Recover the amino acids of this structure.
């Protein structure tokens, strides 16, 4: 029996307004987390299948005599969420700011956020490169291709942190001109990997490609 948790994440547009509301799943943690830059709230509710779900967690460590011991699970859960929050809150804010700047023609913030210590890899929508120096060249080249950014939203899908490694997965929703063409919408699904170096989270990998245009399939949908 488990407690079901749910939360909402609020995204920002390039102009600074609220843009989108979505649920954010964190696999492995057994809960949902608010990925908003504005707040950090965990909302837990009773299981839809049982009104005693929370009581089951609270009493999980009762012994046969009925004496209650301090449950270990909530403590470990709080530690895991604290570790994730310490990573996600500042890192996602820096990532969004860096991507907006890059698409506005300034690669400086992305360059500052990326590690200069190999291994560093980029499996991008335009280029695939291996190595820090090669990645930095690509970032400078990309910045020359974009102009007239009218919207940038990052839709957080999942995130995790353990020790000195972490990841963020989501969708980038962009409206921008490429190579002098008309402003057009673009959605990329992206994965970023991070490594903590001297106490600071540095990006070490980016994988980005165009999001499928078909309807999303649920996890239990047929794969045929």
């Amino acid at each position: 029996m488990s407690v079901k948790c749910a939360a909402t994440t609020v995204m920002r547009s390039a102009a600074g307004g609220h843009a989108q509301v979505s649920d954010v799943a964190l696999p492995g943690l057994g809960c949902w987390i608010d990925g908003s830059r504005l707040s950090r709230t965990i909302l837990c509710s009773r299981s839809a299948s049982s009104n005693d779900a929370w009581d089951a967690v609270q009493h999980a460590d009762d012994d046969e005599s009925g004496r209650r011991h301090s449950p270990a699970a909530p403590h470990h859960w709080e530690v895991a969420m604290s570790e994730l929050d310490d990573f996600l809150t500042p890192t996602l804010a820096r990532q969004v700011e860096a991507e907006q700047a890059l698409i506005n023609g300034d690669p400086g913030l992305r360059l500052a956020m990326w590690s200069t210590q190999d291994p560093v890899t980029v499996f991008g929508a335009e280029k695939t490169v291996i190595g820090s120096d090669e990645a930095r060249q690509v970032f400078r080249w990309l910045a020359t291709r974009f102009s007239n950014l009218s919207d940038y939203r990052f839709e957080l899908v999942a995130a995790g942190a353990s020790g000195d490694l972490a990841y963020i997965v989501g969708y980038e929703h962009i409206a921008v001109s490429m190579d002098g063409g008309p402003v057009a919408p673009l959605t990329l699904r992206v994965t970023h990997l991070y490594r903590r170096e001297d106490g600071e989270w540095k990006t070490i990998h980016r994988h980005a490609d165009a999001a499928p245009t078909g309807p999303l399939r649920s996890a239990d949908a047929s794969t045929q």
Helices lie at 53-58, 72-103, 108-113, 132-143. The CA atoms of residues 57 and 170 lie 31 Å apart.
